[in-house]
Description:
One of its GO terms (cellular component) is cytoplasmic microtubule. The chain is mainly α.
Amino acid sequence: xxxxxxxxxxxxxxxxxxxxxxxxxxxxxxxxxxxxxxxxxxxxxxxxxxxxxxxxxxxxxxxxxxxxxxxxxxxxxxxxxxxxxxxxxxxxxxxxxxxxxxxxxxxxxxxxxxxxxxxxxxxxxxxxxxxxxxxxxxxxxxxxxxxxxxxxxxxxxxxxxxxxxxxxxxxxxxxxxxxxxxxxxxxxxxxxxxxxxxxxxxxxxxxxxxxxxxxxxxxxxxxxxxxxxxxxxxxxxxxxxxxxxxxxxxxxxxxxxxxxxxxxxxxxxxxxxxxxxxxxxxxxxxxxxxxxxxxxxxxxxxxxxxxxxxxxxxxxxxxxxxxxxxxxxxxxxxxxxxxxxxxxxxxxxxxxxxxxxxxxx
Length: 361
């Protein structure tokens, strides 16, 4: 190969190397730029638009970061005894319904607390709009925001303690939501709902409340049935012995018997407690009736100057007066068998006899 040809070959190879280096540089530079962009995007993602701090001392603090402005919103769960009176009642009343229906959930919570203040300090002032207020409270109970839901639950409890039977016609929407919330897995919501249900059974008369509760004892949701059973069992003793007799022991024993075979243990336990209460009331009247008959028989024989020993009086009373004059006052066992199906009667008698044996032992 000549020297000229060799020089030409070296020139060509040098040119190719330069082109190759240049192309590598062009390919490398964009990758660096892309890396910088990815880093910036990751940094942006690490800067959240909003932060929610955990609940502290029962209060929920929400920090909202919107560009340059930072807003702190704190929802306080204030116990009833710690609520203060309102400064401007008239203005509060005028804006009450609008505040309850607001899309601003913090405003809704504040307004719910104002409802509580009005009910505690100015009961009569809210009477004219009470139905609309209760409708809005029921709406807040459905809120997906736990802060709104819990504040509405606390408001319901104060409404029960203040207005008692005055709200009975508007109770249904509150009742179904409270039964649902008491069945939830969120502990702080569930506990608040339980307290509200206790307030309901404490402050609303059982004669008005029991018919409202009874349909929920057959609800498809077993948890709702359980909570309703517990409320029912708590309400019945408040009737008193005379009230239970007037309401109908036969009706109540049928309700309790139907809950003995329920799916959840809470329902069954509530049914057992109710049956023991009914048994005590029934046997109390049974003993009173027997004593009255004994006294009547003794007096009758004394007037006629007949000497009859106590055993004869008791036997005569049991055989004649109890059976003939008061056939409805038979033994507890006979009463259960006459009012219930054989299987239900057997279950009821088993529960009450076991409990009685436990008390005796």
